């Protein structure tokens, strides 16, 4: 009798173990919680300084731009932003080359703003004008206008650009000048989506924010731009122009509720030092600016439902320097 029961008992035990293995309680203990996926992700960079003359050191801008785009491509961004100074001379040939590099290496849409260097062809060609520069920039990058907006997966993107250079250069230097029409458009566009996470891109920084902006290189209409921006509860503002390294503590500040980030430079970031160094430039506040041609930097942004994460990417060695988390309240 006992011998007959043994096969039956063994079968029951095996069946119980099989059922336990398939039970929801057992399987849930073994499964890891899926990692939270961000909404859109994107790279944002500036001061690429591509030129059409393929000779050192000018070639560095083109090579570093291509390398930065390929580096960020590993993280599958939804798009890329180049926030001004895509070129050094602003020539049609340089703009065309910058566009070709973006098309060849980004693998995703690339949105651009105009920088002060995009106007520099006026120093080379006496027939060139601010209108020539703006028209060439719009046509090269297929822009609807010099300032425009985009929506990507619930995130609002606002692109601003300086509108004058040679006409006002003696009065404002390398600062950004925006027309009343652009300011009115910015205000209306920003107010159209008060609850959306919003990113603003302007090449030159605003006074008193990042990049040591009291040196006549910021936005002329800073006061009005800051007033408009401070009305939005979920605003992040990116600027370039100064080349001050994104790793410097000065390159992220919060002012009037707006988070301002400097972008360093893809071409040549600048470190800050209180001590002189070979080739360093001394600022009016006694701080020395040390250019590092071997460096190349940008930011990478991840937008989640409850927060924004801004990371600093060091393209020269493919590492992350730091990240900042901004809660979405």
Question: What would you say about this model in short?
Answer:
The chain has 329 residues and is α/β, with parallel strands linked by helices.
What does this structure look like?
It is a single chain. With 329 residues, the chain is of the alpha/beta class. The protein has a single domain, classed as Purple Acid Phosphatase, chain A, domain 2. It is built from 8 helices and 15 strands. The chain has helices at residues 2-22, 24-30, 59-73, 92-105, 130-140, 169-172, 180-191, 222-229, and strands spanning 41-45, 79-83, 110-113, 148-152, 155-159, 198-201, 235-239, 252-255, 258-262, 270-273, 281-282, 288-291, 297-303, 307-314, 319-327. Strand 1, helix 3 (59-73) and strand 2 (79-83) form a beta-alpha-beta unit. One of its GO terms (molecular function) is hydrolase activity. It holds the Pfam family Metallophos.
């Amino acid at each position: 009798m006992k011998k007959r029961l043994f096969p039956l008992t063994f079968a029951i035990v095996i069946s119980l173990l099989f059922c336990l293995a398939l039970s929801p309680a057992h399987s849930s203990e073994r499964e890891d919680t899926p990692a939270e996926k961000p909404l859109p992700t994107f790279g944002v960079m500036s001061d690429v300084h591509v030129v059409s003359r393929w000779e050192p050191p000018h070639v560095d801008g083109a090579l570093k731009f291509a390398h930065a785009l390929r580096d960020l491509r590993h993280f599958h961004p939804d798009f890329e932003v180049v926030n001004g100074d895509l070129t050094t001379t602003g020539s049609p040939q340089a703009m065309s080359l910058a566009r070709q590099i973006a098309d060849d290496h980004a693998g995703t849409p690339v949105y651009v703003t105009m920088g002060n260097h995009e106007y520099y062809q006026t120093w080379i060609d006496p027939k060139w004008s601010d209108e020539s520069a703006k028209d060439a920039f719009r046509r090269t990058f297929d822009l609807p206008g010099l300032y425009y907006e985009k929506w990507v997966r619930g995130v609002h993107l606002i692109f601003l650009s300086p509108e004058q250079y040679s006409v006002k250069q003696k009065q404002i230097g390398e600062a950004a000048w925006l027309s009343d029409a652009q300011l009115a458009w910015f205000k209306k566009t920003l107010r159209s989506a008060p609850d959306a996470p919003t990113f603003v891109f302007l090449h030159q920084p605003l006074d008193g924010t990042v990049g040591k902006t009291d040196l006549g290189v910021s936005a002329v209409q800073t006061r009005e731009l800051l007033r408009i921006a401070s009305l939005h509860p979920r605003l992040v503002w990116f600027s370039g122009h100064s080349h001050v390294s994104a790793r410097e503590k000065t390159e992220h500040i919060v002012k009037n509720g707006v988070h301002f980030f400097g972008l360093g430079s893809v071409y040549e970031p600048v470190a800050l030092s209180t001590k002189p160094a070979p080739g360093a430039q001394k600022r009016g506040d006694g701080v020395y600016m040390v250019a590092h041609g071997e460096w190349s930097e940008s930011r990478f942004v991840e937008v989640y439902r409850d927060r924004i994460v801004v990371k600093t990417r060091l393209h020269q060695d493919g590492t992350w320097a730091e990240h900042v988390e901004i809660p979405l309240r």
